[in-house]
TrEMBL record:
Pfam families: AsnC_trans_reg, HTH_AsnC-type. It comes from the Bacteria. The keyword ATP-binding does not apply. This is Lrp/AsnC family transcriptional regulator. Residues 1-62, 155-196 form the HTH asnC-type domain. GO terms for cellular component: cytosol. SUPFAM superfamilies: Dimeric alpha+beta barrel (SSF54909), Winged helix' DNA-binding domain (SSF46785). One of its GO terms (biological process) is response to amino acid. One of its GO terms (molecular function) is sequence-specific DNA binding. It comes from Streptomyces diacarni. Keywords: DNA-binding, Transcription, Transcription regulation.
Amino acid sequence: MSEDLDARLIAALQQDGRASYSELATRVGAPRTAVSARVQALLDSGAVGIAAVAHPQLLGLTSLAHVSVAVSGPADDVVGALCATDASVFVSAVSGAYDLVAELRVPSDRELYDALAHLRAQPRVRAVNTLLYTDVVTSVFMPQGPIRGDVHVNDTDLRLIELLEHDGRMSFVELARRVGMSPSAVRARVSRLVDNRALHVAAVVRRGTGSGRPALGAGLNLGGDDERVTAFLAALPGVEFVARTVGRYDLVLTLGSDSTTRLHHVTEQIKALDEVRGLTTWAHLEVFKEHYSRGIARTTT
């Protein structure tokens, strides 16, 4: 069934967006010809994109937050303000007690406060509730864990990152042509960035394109140690993002699937954990902005 194959391919590409068709075929247990056809169909439809995302640490973004916004009346102006700010990497209309959610990434807590103050000043904003990330447990949207070692990038590295931000599956031959190097030298540079967790190339589901793939946000309140819960969530199919937070929830997560039935099954598994005291969910109704790649200042040496 193509829907099931698509789900398995997206999951594999979220782990490694540059995996070859042969590697993908092995991972999902399907013929290479079927895999190449489905991947190309997903990319051509616009429902899925492959993009490189630099580690927030490499970008100097040390303050990350999940922001829920309640709006009086139509939310268009507030959406426009959120999408316009460089601080936001994700903006979505949601169901539930709040009308919008956004993820903000900025260099400092002071800049986060300023961004929130600007948001609160919007005429239709009725309430803003903020969850500060203490650490990201797992994410298909960014490299996992801290950067390994002392990674320095030069202008060539920056150009490669920019090219991969636009097309994560661009061939090494084409990358080499664009930056004026040999394919082997380009491969070595990209591998260094990926291996050191400075860069992650992955599939991003474009939920604002009418792809029909539902997504659910969730906040968890826990009792006791969270280690068993975070380990369980990190290994659970459909979990795209988990972060420890300070605020009204102990953990915030994103669930994605090809059906609401599967999302319900996942939430039931989570609620069955002894440590889970409460689970609050919100459906993502329309995604207005999903851009996890932010330009790196060229003062980097």
